[in-house]
Write a structure and sequence with these properties.
mainly beta; 1 helix; 6% helix; 10 strands; six-stranded antiparallel β-sheet; 171 residues; four-stranded antiparallel β-sheet
């Protein structure tokens, strides 16, 4: 029955024979961070460009999971925000977040990253956030999304102490 259903979907053009499985892409983003202590609610680092988040320009994708490598082993609690266009941030790194209200409408995703989701591995910590299943759409003419982190704790970071691996499912 399953073979018959797949055959009918192939004939109808709903499934491509050359891509029988979902396609995934992994994108690395590294924010440039302040080396002074953050406060809860502070904007952390630079705006991250998440390249090739979408398979095609202006298309939909699904944020499937996120792996955060914390080289400073601080196991930070943070919030991650994603936009389809680069937001206008009127606050500096390591200050209370202040986003242009007009950019609120282009916010595509929010992910809470609790400190309890990390495990230490040697001198670093790894946070794995799975089964997010957040649908997002890239802007017309773009395959990228733009992200930033907001601290929910009081970490002291090194300038390149975080890597974020975004895993997108293109379906």
């Amino acid at each position: 029955m399953k073979t018959l259903l797949l055959g009918l979907l192939l004939l109808a053009g709903y499934v491509r024979a050359d891509t029988p499985y979902d396609l995934y892409s992994v994108t690395l983003a590294t924010p440039t961070l302040s080396t002074s202590a953050y406060s809860s609610g502070d904007y952390m680092g630079s705006i991250m460009t998440v390249t090739n988040a979408c398979a095609n320009t202006g298309s939909w994708t699904t944020l499937d999971s996120l792996n955060l490598i914390d080289y400073d082993n601080q196991k930070i609690a943070a919030d991650l925000y994603l936009w389809s266009v680069s937001p206008t941030i009127t606050s500096a790194d390591n200050a209370a977040i202040n986003i242009n209200p007009r950019d609120s409408g282009t916010t595509k995703a929010y992910v809470n990253l609790p400190a309890a989701s990390y495990t230490s591995f040697n001198a670093a910590a790894v946070g794995q956030f799975t089964n997010l299943n957040i649908r997002v759409k890239c802007a017309a003419g773009s395959k990228s999304l733009y992200g930033l982190l907001v601290s929910r704790g009081t970490p002291t970071r090194t300038a390149t102490g975080l890597d974020l691996n975004f895993i997108f499912k293109h379906n």
